[in-house]
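Reviewer comment 2.1 asked that we show a complete input and output for one of the modelled complexes. We chose the pyridoxal-5'-phosphate case, as it is the one discussed in the main text.
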Amino acid sequence: MSELLTERPPFTEPHVAPRQWEYVRDALENGKLDGNGPYTKQAAAVVRRVTGAAEALLTPSCTHALEMAAIALDIEPGDEVIVPAFSYAPTACAFALRGAKLVFVDSHPDTLNVRADHIAAAVTDRTKAIVVLHYAGVPCEMDPIMAVAREHGLPVVEDSAQAFGSTYRGRPTGSFGRFAALSFHATKNVHCAKGGALLVNDPADIDRAKIIQDRGTDRHHYFQGLVKEYQWVDLGSSSMLNELLAALLAAQLETFDEVQARRGHWWNTYDATLPGWARDNGVATPYIPAHTNHSAHLYYLVLPTEDAKDALLDHLARRGLTATIHYLALHDTPAGRRFGRRGPGGCAVAEALPRRLIRLPMHVGMAADYQRRVIEAITDFRP
Ligand SMILES: *Cc1c(COP(=O)(O)O)cnc(C)c1O
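Response of the prediction step:
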């Protein structure tokens, strides 16, 4: 009997790139360990090429990148920041850390991405920024969102943690906002164990972003010979990715096209086999707007009720298969209540749909046989 039938395979497994050991060893031997070495430059060049960003600063996580954006936008106590109710804690926490009051806005029921009309309704004269999340790597409706931002003169920050490689009307996600944040966490398509990047789209922001990344010092001016000594000039933190992890990331990025193709294959296989069963049983599958390309980061199902979602998770577990839930609405959390409020449109979709959502196992090295078993188990299930 196959091992697959007796062991419960992991929900996700980090991708292994062929040259990652070689690059990490080389970085260790080179001795420039703290960051901004040759592997950082190599990885950042790929990130810029994929996203079209003016600058890509590699960070220890996506969370660090969001926190840098909040500092760069001079968010202060009393400011309001509009954030998606359906998102991950750091999307909101990075701005609450600066003292902002969060205003949570709802999602479209089809993509679970934040709605431009709810953003528009949430703008007040204290609003300082708009944050969006490209859920599952499916781009938000950036044209109407950017129109609202332009009308009110507000900067946009894209949480692009799941959307590296996605495009909206042919343009990369992460290139619309003044800043965007990427994640290279082990669960993401390409990774360096834990890492991220701040994308800077306005060249005028690059210098200060580098200061914020380097403990609030102008050390990069010193390295360029622009100043005789470097000093503390601004707010900042220690937010540079170290060179060992940059080496791992550089090796991973060399396999980016292959990673995307393989994830795309798993994603398309789910999407070719599940919708018939889904329609018959009142289950929703991901909706991909025709004018977008997505990163195949995750495949999810929205069951008709929360009980049906729990029953499907149990059903899969009994067959030795792992599926998992995702974010619950942020405004309904202890910190969300403390640091924010719902926008005027309410958050009905973010309150209801995530409680009925499960994510299916998907990673680059997943076995076809395993995916077949997942699909068979799901299509045997009646909510
Ligand atoms: C993964 C993820 C993050 C956090 O990434 P880290 O690199 O772990 O900080 C933030 N936002 C979203 C939407 C994510 O999926």
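The longest helix spans residues 256-273. We note this here for comparison with the apo prediction described in Section 3.2.
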